[in-house]
Sequence to fold (249 residues):
Amino acid sequence: MKKKIDEIRMKIDSFIADFTITKFFMILTVFLLIVLFVILFIFMCKLVIRFIVANYELLLLCGSIVVAVVYIIWCKRVNNEPTQAVKMRYQTKIEEEQEKQEREAAYLHIQKLLFFVINDTAILTKIPPLKSVSALDAPIHSVLVNNSFYVFQYLVAKDTATALDLITIKQRLNERIDTALRTGEIMGSHEAFFSNSGKRYPRILIHDIRNNGTYIQIDAVIVGHPYADYIERPKAVRNTTVDNSDLDF
Fold:
């Protein structure tokens, strides 16, 4: 029994001895690797320091160039953003002014057309004949409706003693405008028709006529896709809204 105990003890002592030696060599290996790394790091630092000391002028020059290039690019980007914004605002202003001039030209053209057809249909409509084109001038020349189409407004003095049928007046004026456009009676008139979804409309139409006491207000339009789409919608879903921010005087 004692012999077996001694054998076990010897095996344990042998295992401990082997484990200690293995662990010692592992620690030694790690230590040597760390020392080697430190030596290499110090060596590399010395090389870098020597390179910087020997070439510091060149490094300063390259660094200055890089900083200058980055600064120039940054300045151009910062200065270019407001410049682009100013250009866009300026371009928008030019386009708005051009559109306004085009609307005013259209207003004057329709005004001449209305002067002709009103005088030509005066007996039927009972509107007193006009003495000049300027007699149709309204304080506001055009308004944007439903943010889609412009209505051109005109005022006609009326005889307050004479009863007027506004529905008949609108019908007679539209018929006469249609004829004038098709026959080319007015020089420089727009094309006679506008087509939309297979339907044809006179290029210029009376949109509405209202009795304003001593005057009749005539609202005319140049028919395009927005207005054609508007009149093709059922009356129940039409929403006539005037954009007060876009009035031409």
Observations:
- Helices lie at 2-120, 122-125, 166-183, 225-232.
- Strands lie at 142-145, 149-157, 193-196, 199-202, 204-211, 215-222, 242-248.
- The two ends are 125 Å apart (CA to CA).
